[in-house]
Amino acid sequence: MTVNGATPLGATTPEEAAFAQDVPRGEPILEVRDLLKHFPLTKGVLFKKQVGAVKAVDGVSFDLMQGETLGIVGESGCGKSTLAKVLMNLEPATAGSVKYKGEEISHLSGAALKAVRRNIQMVFQDPYTSLNPRMTVGDIIGEPYEIHPEVAPKGDRRKAVQDLLDVVGLNPEYINRYPHQFSGGQRQRIGIARGLALKPEIIICDEPVSALDVSVQAQVINLLEQLQGEFNLSYMFIAHDLSIVRHISDRVGVMYLGRMVEIGTDLEIYEHATHPYTQALLSAVPVPDPAAREHRDRIVLTGDVPSPANPPSGCRFRTRCWKAQEKCAKEDPALTVRDWLDGRARHDSACHFAGERENLI
């Protein structure tokens, strides 16, 4: 609803008015194009001179659709967490575009950035360090209401916090307890409740279950799926565990050395992977059946991951790839659909010689 044809009720800036518009399910709510985050390497003490840069995120592009879960996987150090921080504007982007509901948000500040952060929240990796030990659970979950008082009037905040605790499966009477009085799984539920406080549309989950026991992981994953249906949330889910990503994700993006090397639906990636790096990751997934394990085609990569401060020319995976040819050193492969692929293999892959490989998992 608008006032005098200008902005929706409750919106005080043009940005807030744009962000208040609904996005139809299946349409892009977050559009990322050629996103870069380079950390400068300097030399000298008094007179510092930049001598290079760590290319943590180096040209990442993808869309996050309304109501979907996009999983992001890759080795440690490939840039997954840096990507999440840049999307949240916790780290400023070096270059590139991040659009939320069609509006550029990568260079926002002040009230405009505040409006974005109300709609895009984050669940952090470590439930032990992401909660302030000096604050009660009520203060931690209610803190967003101090920054955005329009969401919950002051007299209703205690009730709102207790409702959130109930939503994530915790006793509302725990509101006056401190973080050290909870288990790891309970702390992560508190982090999820804090992320839900402002009723966001997007939640970026940065390895939310990696520090938890397997049984607790299942509880948190089931909770996230339940909340997605109740609150119509869109997730970007970062994790190392490929089985968890497959369980929760609608689409999966694979990152290597700051780049997205393959992206597609969960079935396309897990059953019809076309990039050699994705195939190597899938071949490393443990198989419980000894008979199936004997006939499995295990891919063992040689060499170490190159330094993001000095990545290889052309394809960044070529130094560890069994398909590498002279073309791979000269041309950087685009993330696109290759003409010779068909069926489920026909999805975006950054490889000059993209093709399926059987018996991976």
From TrEMBL:
Homology family: Belongs to the ABC transporter superfamily.
GO molecular function: ATP binding; ATP hydrolysis activity
Pfam families tied to this protein: ABC_tran (PF00005), oligo_HPY (PF08352)
Domain ABC transporter residue range list: 30-282
Gene3D superfamilies hit by this protein: P-loop containing nucleotide triphosphate hydrolases
UniProt entry tagged with the keyword Transmembrane: no
Single GO biological process annotation from the record: transmembrane transport
InterPro entries per UniProt: AAA+_ATPase, ABC_transp_ATP-bind, ABC_transporter-like_ATP-bd, ABC_transporter-like_CS, Oligopep_ABC_C, P-loop_NTPase
Protein's name according to its UniProt entry: Putative peptide ABC transporter ATP-binding protein
Keywords for this protein: ATP-binding, Nucleotide-binding, Transport
Alphabetical list of SUPFAM superfamilies matching this protein: P-loop containing nucleoside triphosphate hydrolases
Species in which this protein is naturally found: Kitasatospora setae (strain ATCC 33774 / DSM 43861 / JCM 3304 / KCC A-0304 / NBRC 14216 / KM-6054)
